[in-house]
Write a structure and sequence with these properties.
Layout (H helix, E strand, L loop, with lengths): L9 E3 L5 E3 L1 H12 L5 E3 L8 E7 L5 E7 L5 E7 L2 E7 L3 E6 L1
Antiparallel strand pairs: 1-2, 3-4, 4-5, 5-8, 6-7
Length: 99
């Protein structure tokens, strides 16, 4: 799984201000919840509509990041060791689940 961002996270405007782009907020999802020393864990997806990646933080907490790049809502289901949750991602949204 890979997330590819071809644009900068921000853009400098003529009046020396800057404009945040969507990738700025995407990176925020990772940097806010995935701690230094975290390791990537395996994930499986059953649709091309959602990108997913997961991490195990040093404290044992898990972080799952889901990205819906489509124009329509996308349903997901997370399962681990017989437990899980379900939800719906809004179009063009990113969601982080910590447990």
């Amino acid at each position: 799984m890979r997330f590819i961002w071809k644009q900068r996270k921000y853009r400098i405007l003529k009046n020396d201000t800057f404009e945040k782009r969507l990738t700025y907020y995407y990176i925020g999802q990772f940097s806010r919840y995935i701690k230094k020393g975290a390791v990537r864990i395996g994930t499986t997806r059953y649709t091309d509509r959602i990108e997913v990646t997961g991490f195990l933080n040093p404290d044992g907490g898990r972080v799952i990041v889901l990205l819906n790049k489509t124009d329509a809502p996308a349903e997901y289901s997370l399962r681990e060791n017989g437990e899980g949750c379900m939800g719906t991602l809004a179009p063009h949204s990113i969601q982080t689940i910590c447990y």
